[in-house]
Design goal:
131 residues
Length: 131
């Protein structure tokens, strides 16, 4: 697999499209940090890290509106790809949907959203957009 982050986003995107309640994804430290951000920002209901003595698994409970069953995640877009990395300096951090969505960045301070990067005045690699 050349791009595990794209695989992670695609698994979530496919599970949302199929209206699944839970999706299982092979774990890595970067994926765990992205999962924590998605949970803190309210895009997923809950998550659990399962250690199976090999790689581990992330179990994510997807979030839907209780009556209309509309998913909380409308779109997940991979920005920086292995063939073309996208970096943003502290002065040109992206805004997703005029501030309604989030951009997840990998910085020297760890994996954070663009709002936190703006507050900390750091730039980094733009991993994905979520809204």
């Amino acid at each position: 697999m050349t791009d595990p982050i794209a695989d992670y986003l695609t698994r979530i995107r496919n599970a949302v499209a199929a209206k699944h309640k839970i999706v299982e994804i092979p774990a890595s430290n970067l994926k765990k940090e992205i999962t924590k951000i998605l949970h803190n920002k309210g895009y997923i209901l809950s998550y659990k890290f399962v250690d199976d003595k090999v790689q581990g698994v992330i179990k994510i409970a997807l979030k839907y509106h209780p009556k209309t069953k509309v998913p909380a995640i409308k779109n997940l877009t991979r920005i920086s790809k292995p063939g073309l990395r996208k970096y943003s300096g502290k002065d040109e951090l992206p805004r997703v949907l005029n501030g309604l969505g989030i951009a997840i960045l990998s910085t020297s301070q760890g994996v954070i959203t663009e709002k936190e990067a703006k507050r900390l005045e750091v730039g980094g690699e733009v991993l994905c957009y979520v809204y």
